[in-house]
Amino acid sequence: MGQLSRIGVAIDSDLLDRFDALIARKGYTNRSEAFRDLIRDELVEKASERPDSPVVGTVTLVYDHHVRLLGEKLTEIQHEAYHHVLSTLHVHLDHDHCLEVLVLRGKAAAVRKIADTLISTKGVKHGRLTITTTGAEL
Ligand code: NI
Question: How far apart are the CA of 134 and the centre of ligand 1, in A?
Fold first, then answer.
């Protein structure tokens, strides 16, 4: 962490009340940490929009494993991108459905492309990519 700077922020009282209520619900014990997290979240979000930014992403997939060849297709996509796939978790949700969580690492554009390919595969009922930082730049 760098040197601490103290800043004063002028803010509408009603807006501040709403912010305080929000961060209390989220469990923050002081505004400073909540402000820092908001800033970090925005920085991560903006950085992930640059195609060559190094990122880590998690992809969550829910699919029906009875769909013909679907499991094989999803596995094949992952093997083609093996150097980006750090880990996978498979959960048998019920008799029909599987949930997979993949941890991907690489440049933002590559991570998005792998996630899009997996999520758009026919038979995947729901998929979502969450991009975060490798932590090195925060
Ligand atoms: Ni399963």
Answer: 29
